[in-house]
Amino acid sequence: ETGVTQSPTHLIKTRGQQVTLRCSSQSGHNTVSWYQQALGQGPQFIFQYYREEENGRGNFPPRFSGLQFPNYSSELNVNALELDDSALYLCASSLATGAGAEAFFGQGTRLTVV
Amino acid sequence: KQEVTQIPAALSVPEGENLVLNCSFTDSAIYNLQWFRQDPGKGLTSLLLIQSSQREQTSGRLNASLDKSSGRSTLYIAASQPGDSATYLCAVMDSNYQLIWGAGTKLIIKP
Questions:
Q1: What region does B84 belong to: left with phi over 0, alpha with psi -120 to 50, or beta?
Q2: What local confidence, expressed as pLDDT, does residue A97 receive?
């Protein structure tokens, strides 16, 4: 059984550019959630995908978008990057959504916007 | 709006001590509460998950309790070791099935 994997691990982008982050969910998990964690803070929920459909969204602008594929892997896209987008981006997978769902996290992608 | 607070923000104790980390939340309408560990610059490792109907969960030297009515959870670490040094985060699953997080407690265990 493979865990949650994210790529790339580190990334440096210039303000105004676009970025795509990738996440492979744990085997058998059909739900993927994305979080942004600024330095010294707890993660903030961006959005969740369940069976290829968006299933909830946090307080993030539309330039943050996502996708989930038939194999349940997922992408996070951020357009028009701003300096404040610099953070650790975490992906979590779970088996279905709902109260019993335990979230398992990847190691994160550290994005630096200069 | 659900808010999660963790106190203290940082804690430094000698090896071997038992310690308690605190987590409080403002809205008792939660589905579960989860404790995580995060090493510097790394992802999150799930430690314990407590469903809203449960009072506590145990794993090895870790014990987590949940008092939903008072909006509080504690993580008890017995016989602390230097390898326990990390940031510990709690998160509650709210009525929209979203995880709401505290800012974490940075724990340092001195050899």
A1: alpha
A2: 61
